[in-house]
Design a protein that fits this description.
Layout (H helix, E strand, L loop, with lengths): L5 E10 L7 E10 L2 E7 L8 E12 L1 E6 L15 H13 L4 H17 L2 E8 L2 H11 L2 E8 L10 H12 L3 H4 L1 E7 L7 H14 L3 E5 L3 H11 L3 H7 L7 E5 L5 H10 L2 E4 L1 H6 L7 H6 L4 E3 L12 H16 L7 H7 L2 H6 L17 E4 L14 H11 L5 E6 L2 E5 L2 E2 L4 H22 L1
Parallel strand pairs: 1-4, 5-6, 6-7, 7-8, 9-10, 10-11, 11-12
Antiparallel strand pairs: 1-2, 2-3, 4-13, 13-14, 14-15, 15-16
Length: about 450
């Protein structure tokens, strides 16, 4: 699509998820290049350029997945029903030991295919081989915040993960408009990254103003390890090192005490809620209500396919809200509007992109999805009711109901046809790569 080409979406219902909760039962949106030019009622906005009749579909901002590991699609259904540390030590890391750049690329393409088919337009990744997988992410047409992983121990990619991660960020920084890849650093977790590495990561992120994406307090075991090693909780240890003075996105954030939460609030640490992964690995329940009471901003992520088995963020969103209602004994907690915002504008805030994406407003980038309102899950739909639209998305829709997607104004999927990837080739390569990993991990065992 030419940068300044214009097209108009019409015959659709538009849920903007903006600050005023505007919605248009019979809506129209005009896109010029990569930007939303106008959005409003069909009767008030003249069509321009190519007119695309969406046949009554529901248009909303693209979903934002704030924590995932794209390589892990190759490990799907290979290590179920294990405790976290057994899962890591006995299954995940032996499989990862046989990864290389080409297999990581195959995995990333498969994950992107699933993100697209589930309505995810932006995802925040953390993995090795960042230099190899960034072009794959870029080709997919999605926005990818790519955290090059840092580990204390050597990885299958390199003896020095920190140097490799820094080199990646330096090469890709400043090219975001061209590539839609936003490089950052991904120190894995307090228990797997050294003090010196965390200090260097923090200094680099501060100097270059890039995101620091890590795991914090996913399990009680992690907390116990860090307490025994440093005499502090993971949050308080990272604070003592100056790590939390950066823009920090903290996955899981389950086992936080009151002081931890005060630090999160003071430092504006963003917490990514990963409900299905937390359930599967029995990691615990994020204290969502307490986090919100402390003024801590929360978004949502799927985590990797190896601890979720699916990248359906809409499914996870519903599961996550229902968990919180049950844990708190409060059916009014986590209403549908809040759920939808968690997967859209709150994700944009967490990634520092809320001025560009996360809602459908004039001047913002054209990142949107359309849901097929002829799906039986979405019928009946009361287009004149904002609460019904929010509830339909939050409680009824699945990723498979997303029929169309555009990112930065470019069509990525239309009528469930993915336009940016050769899906047959992606599936073939991913299958071959996974079979190689599984067979070689078994030999090693």
């Amino acid at each position: 699509m030419h940068q300044q080409s214009i097209y108009t979406l019409t015959n659709c219902t538009i849920l903007t998820v903006d600050g005023e909760d505007r919605f248009f039962p019979r809506g129209r949106m005009v896109i010029r290049g990569n930007t939303i030019l106008r959005v409003g009622q069909e009767s008030e906005i003249p069509a321009e350029g190519e007119v695309i009749d969406l046949g009554g579909k529901l248009v909303m901002p693209g979903l934002i997945n704030t924590h995932t590991h794209s390589h892990s699609s190759l490990f799907k259904n290979q290590a179920d029903d294990l405790r976290l540390m057994d899962w890591l030590n006995k299954a995940m890391w032996p499989l990862e030991a046989h990864l290389n750049a080409a297999r990581a690329q195959a995995a990333t393409a498969l994950s992107c295919m699933e993100y697209i088919s589930s309505g995810i337009t932006t995802y925040c990744d953390q993995f090795y081989f960042a230099e190899a997988i960034a072009p794959v992410a870029s080709k997919s047409g999605l926005r990818c915040v790519l955290g090059a992983t840092v580990f204390e121990k050597p990885s299958v990619e390199t003896e020095d993960t920190l140097s490799a991660a820094i080199a990646f960020v330096e090469r890709w920084l400043g090219r975001e408009e061209e590539t839609l890849v936003y490089p950052c650093l991904g120190p894995h977790a307090p228990y797997s990254v050294s003090t010196e590495q965390f200090v260097r990561v923090a200094e680099f992120c501060r100097k270059h103003n890039v995101l620091l994406h890590t795991h914090i307090s996913e399990t009680l075991d992690e907390n116990d390890q860090i307490l025994a090693r440093y005499g502090k909780t993971p949050t308080q240890w990272l604070e003592s090192l100056g790590v939390l003075e950066n823009r920090v996105l903290a996955a899981h954030s389950i086992h936080l005490d009151e002081q931890d939460m005060r630090i999160y609030a003071q430092r504006n640490v963003h917490a990514s809620y990963n409900p299905v992964s937390n359930l599967k690995l029995v990691s615990g329940f994020m204290p969502y209500r307490k986090l919100r009471e402390h003024g801590i901003q929360v978004s949502i992520g799927t985590d990797g396919a190896q601890s979720n088995n699916s990248m359906d963020l809409l499914r996870d969103l519903r599961t996550g809200a229902l968990i919180q209602k049950q844990v708190e004994g409060d059916a009014t907690l986590f209403p549908a509007r809040e759920m939808v915002r968690l997967a859209t504008i709150e994700g944009a805030v967490a990634l520092g992109m809320d001025r560009q994406i996360g809602s459908l407003e004039a001047g913002k980038r054209a990142d949107f999805i359309a849901l097929d309102t002829k799906s039986p899950r979405l019928v009946p739909l009361h287009r004149d009711s904002l609460s019904n639209l929010y509830s339909t998305v939050a409680y009824s829709a699945y990723g498979v109901d997303v029929s169309d997607m555009a990112v930065n104004g470019r069509w990525v999927m239309q009528n469930r046809d993915i336009l940016t990837l050769d899906c047959d080739e992606v599936i073939t390569r991913a299958q071959e790569a996974s079979e190689y990993l599984v067979s070689h991990a078994k030999r090693q065992a």
